[in-house]
Amino acid sequence: MKEIKIGLLGLGNIGTGTYKVLEMNRDEIEASAGAAVNIVKILEKDIDRERDIDVPREKFVSDPQDIFADPEIDIVIELLGGIEPASTMIEQALRSGKHVVTANKAAVAASYHRLMEAAEEGGVQLRFEASVGGGIPVLTALTGCLRANKFNRVLGIVNGTTNYILDKMTSEGLPYEEVLKDAQAKGFAEADPTADVEGIDAANKLSILMALMFDHYVHPKDIPTKGITEITASDIEDARAKNQLIKLIAYAERMEDGTIKYEVRPMRIIDTHPLSGVHREYNAVFVEGNVVGNLMFYGPGAGPLPTGSAVMGDVLEIIRSQA
Ligand code: HSE
User: Fold this and answer.
1) How far apart are CA 234 and CA 237, in angstroms?
2) 147-175 tens-digit pLDDT
3) What is the reported pLDDT for 177?
4) 241: how many CB neighbours lie within 10 A of its CB?
5) Are residues 292 and 150 part of one domain?
6) Do residues 145 and 294 share a domain?
7) Ligand 1: lining residues by beta carbon, under 6 Å
C-alpha cells in the first residue's frame, strides 16, 4: 500500500489533537486517502511534556530542515502558532515542494501574499481550513461549492473566548472581569487573553475571510478593531431591554460602489437573528451570497479535536487531489 508521509511542526494542544485524530480515525482516513497516512517526523522542543498520546521518541527532530529536506515527506502540517517563525517555516516548506496544512490564522493573515506566492512557485497547495472557525468547514465551502456566488456580506462570531465571556455576562448578569477570571480558571481563556479580548484574533480571521470571499486582502493591523474589554453589565442590560444581544462581530460588506467596508467590534444583534443563538465558546459565520442567499455555518470554533478534524480534512483534500 502506498504511504503518505507527513512532517508535523509543533506538538502543543492542536498538534496533539491532530495526532490523536489520525490515531482515532486511522481506518476512515486511510480508506479515504487510499494510502497509509503517517506522521513520521515532529519538530518539537518540549519532548517530555505530558500528553495523552504515545509518540515514539525517534519521531522528534530539533531542526526543521530534517523535515523540509526529506524527499519522502509529502505534506507538512504547521501547528506552531504565532506569526514567526511559523510564516518562514511555512514558506520554506512550500519552497521545498511540500504541500502545507496549517491552523495558524495569525501567520496566514499576516503573510498572506508571501505564502500564496510560495505555494504557487513551489507548485504545491497551502490549505488552512482550521484557521477560521476551527472545526467548522467554512473556507472550503466558500471557495468550493459556493464559488458561483458574489458575496455581499459576512458577519462572524469567530472567537470562542469572547463569545463565552459575553454569553456568560448576558446569562448571569456578571461583570467582565469576573467572567474573564472564571473563563481562565476553566481553560476557556488564555492566561494572556489579549489577542482574544482585544479582537486581534477575530481580525486575523476576518482578514482571511475577506481575502477568500471578496478577493480583497487587508492586513489585520489595518482592520479597525475594538475588543470587548469595555463592555459593561449595564451595556448588556440596556441591549437586552431592546431585545438585542452584544456579540463580538467580524464584519465585512461589499458596498454599492464596490468598496469593501470592514471592522471587528462588539455589535448589537437582534435576538431573532441566527447569530443570537450562538452561545458559549461556539463560533458561527453568517454569509450573504447573491445567488445562494443567506447561510450560517455553526459549530466548535476551537479545541484540539475539532481543529484536528479540519487539519486532517485538508490533508485528505491534498491526497485526494493528487490521486
Ligand atoms: N483563541 C481562539 C478562540 C482559539 O478563542 O476562538 C481558536 O482560534
Assistant:
1) 5
2) 999 999 999 999 999 999 999 999 999 99
3) 96
4) 8
5) yes
6) yes
7) 134, 159-161, 196, 201, 301-302
User: Which CATH number covers residue 310?
Assistant: 3.40.50.720
Q: For ligand 1, atom 4, which residue shows the shortest CA distance?
A: 302
- pLDDT tens track for 61-103: 999 999 999 999 999 999 999 999 999 999 999 999 999 999 9
**pLDDT tens profile 230-244:** 999 999 999 999 999
Distance CA 135, CA 133 (A): 6
Among 162, 164, 196, 208, residue to substitute to test ligand 1 (most atoms within 8 Å of Cβ): 196
Question: Are 126 and 115 contacting, i.e. CB atoms less than 8 angstroms apart?
Answer: yes
User: Are both 147 and 199 inside the same structural domain?
Assistant: yes
Q: Which domain holds residue 119?
A: 3-135+304-321
Phi, psi dihedrals of residue 169, rounded to the nearest 5° = -60, -40
CB 30 within 8 A of CB 37: yes
Residues 292 and 158 grouped into a single domain: yes
Is the same domain home to 296 and 308?
Answer: no
From 98, 105, 205, 247, the catalytic residue = 205
Q: What is the CATH number of the domain that holds 184?
A: 3.30.360.10
Expressed in angstroms and rounded, the spacing between residue 158 Cα and the centre of ligand 1 is 8
Judgement on whether residues 147 and 23 belong to the same structural domain of the protein:
no
14, 159, 309: which to mutate for ligand 1, most atoms within 8 A of CB?
159
Better-scored residue on pLDDT, 187 or 226? 226
Same domain, 183 and 239: yes
Q: Indicate whether this model's pTM tops 0.90.
A: yes
